[in-house]
Write a structure and sequence with these properties.
single chain; alpha+beta
Length: 247
Amino acid sequence: MYASTAFFFICAVAAANCAKLPSSFTKCHRKESNFGRCLAAAVENAVGQLDKQIKEVGLPNMEPLEVPALRIGAGTGPVAFEQNYKDVLVSGFTKLRCSAAAMDFAAKTLNMTVTIPQLKLEFAYEISGKILLLPIYGKGPGVITLDELEQVLTFTFEEFEKKGKKHFRVVDSKLVMNPKLIQIKLDNLFNGDKALGDNINQVMNDNWAEVFADVKPSYEEAFAKIFFSIFNNLLAKVPISEIFGEE
């Protein structure tokens, strides 16, 4: 509903043959006594290398991550307009810190807590509606930054077999986003009226917590779908035993 399906073209590049994790990735065996700590370090290590595409395991360049379109639905409170973004560049993912990771093989779930020092979205926007009861409209370039963004991710898997190897497939993903600060800059509001535009930008930044709370579920759903697609690309190529070791 909220993320453009145009982004999910990356799902179509899953390889027919099984691949190995890149040798530069940290590998963790499920039977290690410190498996959780190893897994958290492995996530941080792997994502930190995604400043370039790793085609052999289906992972895109995430610095920046290019999202053709992103739609955030109108809130039910202060954000009374739909946010339509195009040509979105998302930067900052590769700097994430992973503080916890837990894989439950019986329940087929993975839980992770990560913090991104600053996530920046640069885009072309088109909006019309009201924010905090004030009219807002415009079309032009914009930037949103989310500082010290904590993300709690939950992936649910199902198992399937390909060419004699067991693989996981993500069937559900949930995300909770908790930023410490959000800064918003929308250029060319009100057809370029600088005084009105500066005033609305200031209002949004002064009330960022209230503004974000109203559309938070939309952002969480949109980014959960993006992570869903990226992770499934990896899992389609790399068998379970290669990622987590033999049972």
